[in-house]
Amino acid sequence: MEKDIDDKLIALITQTVMEKLKENDIKISKRINKYGIINIKGNSVKCQPFDTGNDNNQVFLKDIVTIDESPNLMCGFMEMKESCFPWTLKYDEVDYIIEGTLEIIIDDEKIVGNEGDVIFIPQNSEIKFSTPTYVRFFYVTYPANWSEL
Questions:
Q1: Rounded to an integer, what distance in angstroms lies between the CA atom of residue 86 and that of residue 130?
Q2: Beta-carbon count within 10 A of 62 CB
Q3: Closest alpha carbon to 64 in 87, 38, 88
Q4: Rounded distance, CA 65 to CA 127, Å?
Q5: Per-residue tens of pLDDT for the chain, all 149 residues
Q6: Backbone angles phi, psi at 37, to 5 degrees
Q7: Burial class of residue 115 (count of CB atoms within 10 Å of its CB; 0-12, 13-18, 19+)
Q8: Got the DSSP string for 42-103?
């Protein structure tokens, strides 16, 4: 019986520590004032793995303004490393490239954005998000409830 208590205690401690580490990994510096103005420190945002359906892809993202805070639009950061994946946008999207190269592939055309560039992708576009090396970009989507559409 003493062995069962020790195993349960170890499991509880391990679970608690893992949850605390996870909280620290995803905590961003975000302040909302009484008027609803949100200030987010961009360098505090740590993107989380995003499943593209291809285990070889290295895609990470983090929504930073969500439908909980804005019924109209969402925004966040995405990072990709040597990856390409198909996506159908059920929303309008604006991407601002912070670092690296973002390629939007549609049919046989490749739209290339580099640091400082802005790319607008209209609703219902069937594209591929791609980067030959690395990209970090900021995205804004409209409408915010696109996942329900």
A1: 9
A2: 15
A3: 38
A4: 24
A5: 455 566 776 666 666 655 554 444 457 788 888 888 888 888 889 999 999 999 999 999 999 998 888 889 999 999 999 999 999 999 999 999 999 999 999 998 999 999 999 999 999 999 999 999 999 999 999 998 877 76
A6: -80, 130
A7: middle
A8: GGG---EE---S-TT-EEEEEEEE-TTT-SS-EEEEEEEEEEEEEEE-SSEEEEEEEEEEEE
C-alpha separations of 87 from 1, 52, 90 in Å: 53, 9, 9
Query: CA-to-CA distance for 129 and 86, rounded, in angstroms?
Result: 6
* pTM of the complete model: 0.79
N residues, the chain: 149
Q: Cα–Cα distance between 31 and 73 in angstroms, integer?
A: 18
> Over the Cα atoms of the chain, what is R_g?
19
Q: Among all chains, which residue has been given the structure tokens 């401690």?
A: 13
